[in-house]
Amino acid sequence: MLRDGGHLIITAPFCSLTHFAPYHYTTGFSRYFYEYHLSKYGFQIIETQENGSFFDYLAQEIRRLDSIANKYADSRLNFFEKALVFFFLLALRRLKEKDNGSNELLCFGYHIHAKKVRLMGK
To answer: For the residues of the chain, what is the DSSP string, one character each?
Structure first.
């Protein structure tokens, strides 16, 4: 519902490993979803920005492990397991510092800036 030249800003969560790339545009808000559907409806993508990376996502879920284990397995991590989590998080931090594109595999979602370049049917 934008006029030609109008700007569209979208942000949406996405937490699915990218698969079937570049055909991953029908089952989630991947970058391929936006590229496919926005161009189909007359939008030019000006900027696509990923939110987070594979390492960020994995670290988030590892931090939840004890509470999820408590809620869904009626168990808590023991001292040794908590130590392993700590060292695993250190490894993820180190890998994140060297990251060169893991967000194409997994991230928290995308921020999209697009511009309407033509009306449908014209």
So the answer is: -PPTT-EEEEEEE--S---STTS--SSS--HHHHHHHHHHTTEEEEEEEEES-HHHHHHHHHHTHHHHHHHHHS----HHHHHHHHHHHHHHHHHHHT-SSGGGT--SEEEEEEEE-S-TT-
